[in-house]
Amino acid sequence: MMEISEDSLFQSVKEIIRQSREKVFRIANSTLLLTYWQIGQLIVEDEQQGKERAEYGKQTLKNLSKKLSLEFGKGFDESNLRNMRSFYQAFPICDALRHELSWTHYRLLIRLDHIDKMNYYINEAVQNNWNYRDLKRQINSLAYERGVLEHKKSPAENIHSILKDPYIFEFLGLTPDQKFSEKEIETAIIDHIQKFLLEFGKGFAFVARQQHISTDTSDFYIDLVFYNYILKCFVIIDLKTGELSHQDIGQIDMYVRMYDDLKRGEGDNPTIGILLCSEKDETIVKYSVLNDKNNLFASKYLLYLPKEEELKEIIDQDRIRFELDQNNNKQP
Question: Which GO terms describe its molecular function (predicted)?
Fold first, then answer.
């Protein structure tokens, strides 16, 4: 019989315990979700039988909360019972529940006002393994609204289903009222690469910083390089702290062409280039190659999380410009 080292034994036992705990958690979580869903169903059905629903329902929840709290302790106050009612109303089909998500996830999701928005956050949370804090940040930063409009028209995975505008980098810890160099922002991104990838979108893996590209006559350094395993292509990023210029656009266009020629593998799709800029002149974007190519993009970034109304205004302005450009492109 083959001898097992102490370390191998420890690792084997550790893995068994880890798998066991994960299994227990999944079972407990599924049971909790089902319990709360069934309680919500009973509350809704009971209220619908009342003659004066609002007053009747309010008094019923108050009395029910008192009795359940006396019997079972915490977790059954009026607020949580209302959450259970909303939970059932938002997800009337029990089989549609995603058991990868916890009750704390669902307490955030039931506050959303649109089914498409809810489905977006559910799918993203499951696919990207978002915890409660991750989901809360994405909702508070209006990740759904910041997505490029075309991603809402088709479920197919493409660059438009991943891009955002603007990006929000408050997690970098850089004071928005100070000026930072491109190198300083780049360094902060590397220091917070996990949070950056969460904000940037799904499917990205970090490849290189200041990647050296050499030709027969010149040397170039690309700020940040990623690979997206969903799109199966390299994504290169050029950081800009000032206003976007034609020179910047020409540079990213050149970088993409060079990367395709010198770095792109046989099974890779064409490289995508993204200009991340603190200020974006929409007129320059409209009358440049950015408006004609489907592999070059410019997105604005913010070093702070704006108030919701301010962020909505930025998004609405971008949406209006986008729709005007689309309509103009359709005209003969």
Answer: nucleic acid binding
